[in-house]
Amino acid sequence: MASVANATMWLLFGVTLLFISFGGFALMLGLYVLAFIAGGLLIVYHYGKQAACLNLSELHQSGLVGNGGIEKVKAAMEQTTKMKNFDKRMTGASVIDDVLKEVLEYTVKDYIKTWYRQISDHDSFLVDIWQCAQKVIITFSNRSKDIDWMPYFTQRLVDDFASHIRLYRRAAERTSSAPNEESFAALESAFFDMEVEMENNMCRDLVCLDPKAERQYLQDLSEVLLYLLLPKEDFHNKPFRYIVREVLVNGIFLPTIDLLSDPDYINMYIAWMCYETSFTRETFLTVIRSSDCMEELEAVRDMVDSDIAKWRSKDTGGSDDTTIKQNLNSLMFLRDTCEMRIRRLKSGLGYSEQMMEEPENLRYQSLYVLTLDDIFNNNVALQFFIEYISSKGGEQYLFFYLNVEGFRAAAEQQISEMQKLTLTSVTAPEPDLESLRRAAKIIFDQYLSEKASSKLKIEPDFIKYTVQKMKNKMLSEDIFDTVQARVYQILHCEYYEDFVQSSSYIKLLRELGLLTSKEDGDHLEDVPRILWFKADDLQDAQYEDTGSDTMSIGSASSATSAGSPSGETYLNAQITHSGVVKEPETGKSYAVFAINVHKKDPYSEEEDVWDVYRRYSDFHDLHMILIEKFPELTIPNLPSKTVLKNMSQSFLEKRKKDLDKYLKNLMRADLLQHYQGLEELLNQFLHNGIWEKHKSEFSRKMDTIVHPLKSASKSMGNVVKSVPDGVTRIGDGLGKVFTQQRSVDQSKSREMMNQLKVGAGLDPEAGENIPLRIMLLMMDEVFDLRHKNQWLRRRIVAILRQLIKATFGDKINRKIVEHVDFMTSAEQMAEYIIAFKNSFWPNGALAEPRSSRDEATKMRTKVLCKAKMLGSVPDEVRTLMGTDAVRKGVARVFQMFQHKTLNKRILYVVLEGVLVTLFPENKFQAIFRKLHSRSERAEKAEEKQKAAAAQEAQLRKRTVKR
After folding, report:
1. Count of other CB atoms within 10 angstroms of residue 602
2. What is the distance between the alpha carbons of residues 275 and 293, in angstroms, rounded to a whole number?
3. Does the CA dihedral 555-560-565-566 come out positive or negative?
4. Model-level pTM?
5. Tens digits of per-residue pLDDT, 97-123?
């Protein structure tokens, strides 16, 4: 206010001085200035008005004024500032729609609003995007509901995966002699060469090997999908369609396929999916000793060295001194094992040679002796014996013996059925034994006649006696018993005794797990099974931290106190003795283990002490009940079953230690307190009485699984389907007899079938049996049954059928249908979307990018994945297939997943199978064939076919002219 007053005062002072100095002239000067300004403004107004009128008349003549365009645009913009209310239902299931709504909101927030809000504050574009996404989801949902997914999940998906394994196996066999540095590229090239043959001139090598071709393929595929899913008005909007296509290709398809095909990601996911109990000391040491990757061994050894240093820093005596020393011994033993394997790899020794580099009498403490009957009763042993005896030229004796066993089983069945019919029916016709007589004649002509193709060197008296029995009117099942007994002597004296002294027998014992090596001592028997992986080796795995940088897998400590002390009440048990018991009635012998039990009740002054005797099968039943009643319980590892009965003192002593450790781990106080009913179950097991009464349904089913494996030799007549030297079918029920082998080249036929997809070679008889189909597909390709002896393969297939029938019966199909329905139900789909949301937006915030993992961590993850995969194979499969066959099969599947390009191939196969199933009327199969026909391999194969067809046509013309 003071400044304004001062300014006013100075202004008045100036005006006063002006009038005093100039008088009336100052007044005239002020009027002149005001008139000049007013005149200038008047002239500007006049000329501006004339120009505006002229321009307005021109606009009226052009029609640009008078339509209210600006007012209409303004009104439209004002209306779009408000969000429209529309129906947000998408799939028809509220449990899915709620989760999808959250995912769409997060997507719009983090991927659209971040850039759109910099352009405009209006929501019309966001609303249109929301409506478009809603329409796409509705179209996709309606299409999915109309599709029966059962055939795809139970047939095509399994067929595609098994065919992928077949291609990998054949490619690995073809490139096995390639150098290591070139093996990867050579294997992939051979893989895609064989894919052209299998897929009938269609190859996916471009989309797997060429990034530009892969992007072009996904762009073309996205165009087709947008045509099927987008609303018409959005699809015909080319800028919008191209933007959506590029977002799909570069933002969704390519990153997802790149992640899912990453071998390290697959290894982490497989290790996360496998149960913790699948990781055992035996499988881990097997992986270390059979590893051919130097980087894996060095990564594990480096981590072991680090942990050794940490445990030595804690070795200061005290109450934990025993545990620390045990852990150190375990770590040092593992380090020595890794270093030994590294030295062998540097010296050029593989897994097959490592067990044979030392003299046998120095390497092995003792050898388990298998009898000839044991070999006949075991598939794995019989396979080794067939290979050995074939190398010596005496396979015809063995095949004769097996054929006679099959004949006897079929004859006993047929004769007993006929006798039942004769007794039950008065007018029953006389038994028709011509079919058996023809079967016996086929065996005789093949092995015993003068013109036999596989003549046996048998004394003539035995043959004459057999001929006389064949001429009898009442044919019996024992007509070949005399000759068979003589053949048994020949097999035993001339082949079996040499076989048990050969290197093949050593390999057999190793395969059966009956080989005791000096380096396979008890180094890890009484120490915790600690594996040396960092916590970030498996980012998604849910392990418990042990308080240090190591992760404990298996038992936490061998120093854990046995029993369950709780105040004055406790229950302790210890296996004190083992022995062999022989039943007087049957003469069968079996091992028993004496358990000394100490128990004190809360109100009792004295403790009760008693002994209870249990067999291994009782422990196995207890284990099955625990799995059934406590699925969330981390159950200790039960010692695995043996293939053959082993009653040696050293084996029983080792089995006693393993079972005692298993029992003590179950009786830990923390387990008994946390799991209600566990202590009561253990009380029942340790109480005097017959444990058989407590068997669960699951345990009885497991017995039915093991029973066919034990009694396979008794049902040999129903098992044997073919043998490689002339007889193709043996007694598979009433009226089925031997038939002559057709004159075809079986090796060429098998090779042709090997070039087709796995589903093309299925037995039509098993076509409707979904579980058998799945098992045969996977067994054949994973464990390479087709390369086994045909007799053994048929026998394994028959046992698998018995196993499935005994385990599940006719309910397996219904259970699979129910499982697929459950996995595709609305609730499960909502769970999948929730898992997706939580992984991308944990706690509602966009997740950070995945951090890169160092090579050492990746190598240790590979070791963990292989060990868990190997430990996940059931003992029954090991018994049926053999330890080495299981190890090779698991290694084959694992190595297949280490090729990123091949992983991409199976992902694209699955994607194409889903789209073909989802849109059956849109000819997706032809679309994919057209897209994959760009491959040079496919073009060359098609040109060869055309040339061959033209050449065949010319030959036909020449034949017609002649």
Report:
1. 8
2. 25
3. negative
4. 0.68
5. 888 889 998 998 888 888 888 888 888
